[in-house]
Amino acid sequence: MHANASLIDRMRQVLPDLNKAERRVAEAILADIDAAIGMTTRDLSEKAGVSEPTIVRFARRMGDSGFKDFKLRLSRDFATGRMFVMSEPSDIAADSAAIANQVYEATAQALAYSFAQRDPVALDRAAEAIHKAQRVFCMGVGGSSANVAAEAENRLYRFDVAASTIIDPYRQPVAASLCGPKDVLLIFSVTGRPASLLESARLARANGATVIAVTRPASPLAEASSVPIGLDIPDDDRRFEIPNRSRYGQLYMLDCIATLVAAKRAERVGAKLRKARDTLRHMHGNTGQQPIGD
Fold first, then answer.
1. Where is each HTH rpiR-type domain found (predicted)?
2. Quick check: 27 and 16 in contact, CB under 8 A?
3. Integer angstrom CA distances of residue 166 from 52, 137, 173
């Protein structure tokens, strides 16, 4: 079974291996997913002709703690599926117009996945921790995650957050070992498995720091963090030409966090942002509308 298979795909795949009662549950859900999302365990048990404990056992077999969590994941997957109005092309195009279309589709799909997986509570917890932090260390390794970590510093410093980027796997655990309760690690990782990031999360938390991880749910890094922000976007490793979708998802989550931080610090940094814009005007004149720092 593909590691990134949606819950809906997984139910279809395991259908032949289920016992008779669980198969009735899966078939009842797949017959009308939209209706199943709004059902209680009693509603579904009556529709499927099984007991309520069977519903709970089925949810746990699918990897959830209970029917409530199962429905939440089902609703996210179903929402994602409905957002995907564009089909995935089988071959890489050769002309610029078709390539532009394929890149656009890949980006739109990544944003759809990210939006469906958003957790407002976790995002607000992350923003609150950053807002109150003495220092924020932005970490990632590899191409996409390291670049997004650098972008996190770029987004946060203009809101007067003491943010710095550390992408060197050697420096990461060293910095984490120097953290204290007022510090925050903001970590980006597609897989949630790089050794330096796991060690950094462990050391930082042992010192009382807050660890925010934008990474795959249930990954080692997610489990090691104090504020996990789940992000799991399927990518086809065979298609090197198409941009990595996870990068767009990471940027979406970062933008959510940064915007929440900005809202929390609006009164505090308003005057400083005006000074920053004045500085830019003195450097190269009035250019009209322009993001601060670009």
1. 5-81
2. no
3. 50, 7, 10
> Is residue 233 scored above 90 in pLDDT?
no
What's the Cα-to-Cα distance from 52 to each of 22, 56, 138, 207, rounded to whole Å?
A: 11, 7, 46, 45
Give the β-pairing of 183-188 and 227-230: unpaired
**For 246-272, how does the pLDDT look when each residue is reduced to its tens digit (9 = 90+)?**
899 999 999 999 999 999 988 777 666
120-268 topology per CATH: Rossmann fold (3.40.50)
Cα 201 from Cα 219, distance rounded (Å): 13
Cβ atoms within 10 Å of 53's Cβ, excluding its own: 11
3-class secondary structure for 26-60? Answer: HHHHHHCHHHHHCCCHHHHHHHHCCCHHHHHHHHH
Query: CA 92: distance to chain centroid?
Result: 27
Of the candidate CATH numbers 1.10.10.10, 3.30.360.10, 1.10.8.60, 3.30.200.20, the domain formed by 7-83 belongs to 1.10.10.10
Each domain of the chain, given as residue ranges in start order, spans: 7-83, 120-268
Tokens of 198: 């796991």
